[in-house]
Design brief:
single chain, alpha/beta, Rossmann fold, 33% helix, globular
């Protein structure tokens, strides 16, 4: 797909972005009408912060120091041209086994049946690298044939040599997953590093105005 002329970082700044729905089960999922980009990752990896940075709003998506703050699929409408989906964090969120099972089923069924889903972004904390839960989730995306980007977060916390080493490790991870897009994105929501490149990549999925 050719990227439209609107594929500029300013596109995300100029379009309004609003919260439209939160889905804790399949029955509450909003109607699938716009192209969707899903954000997933371990609890507290920085999903909400990245969503805020991409649309250049300070507090659109809720951020919290408490793992598991996102307890549902949160849908954000970008100018009626794209939907951003902030998904529950996985890993060490303090939830019951039943809640975790419900989330797992909701997310799997969302990936399998959401026809408007264009890409998933798997966020990896650059300070820690890919953990077992991350690999499990990437395997799920392989199984459900959902193309995904690996997005490193919090790269400002690493020294240059550490970042170089982590980038190589992530390139190796990309090669091991059939659904992984062969381009790695390294970002810092706090320092706004790499945000413009990710905006440009995602702009190809924004409907023409």
């Amino acid at each position: 797909m050719d990227k439209p002329e609107a594929a500029e970082p300013s596109l995300f700044r100029s379009l309004p972005c609003t919260f439209v729905a939160g889905a804790a089960n399949e029955e509450s999922l909003p109607h699938a009408a716009l192209p969707e980009i899903a954000f997933i990752g371990r609890s507290n990896v920085g999903k909400s912060s990245l969503v805020n940075a991409l649309v250049e709003k300070k507090a659109l998506a809720r951020t919290s120091q408490n793992p598991g703050a996102t307890k549902q699929l949160n849908f954000f409408n970008l100018g009626n041209r794209l939907m951003l989906v902030d998904m529950p964090g996985y890993g060490f969120a303090k939830v019951s086994k039943q809640q975790k099972s419900d989330w797992d089923n909701l997310i799997r069924n969302y990936f399998l049946g959401r026809t408007t889903l264009q890409r998933a972004l798997v966020l990896i904390d650059a300070r820690r690298g890919a953990m077992p839960h991350d690999h499990e989730f990437m395997e799920l995306l392989d199984e459900t044939a959902v193309i995904f980007y690996i997005v490193l977060t919090k790269i400002d916390a690493l020294k240059p040599a550490e970042l170089t080493e982590m980038l190589q490790k992530m390139q190796d991870t990309i090669k091991s997953h059939v659904a992984a897009y062969p381009v790695l994105f390294a970002t810092s929501a706090e320092k706004k590093q790499g945000i413009d490149l990710l905006q440009q990549e995602l702009a190809q999925f924004v409907l023409p105005g």
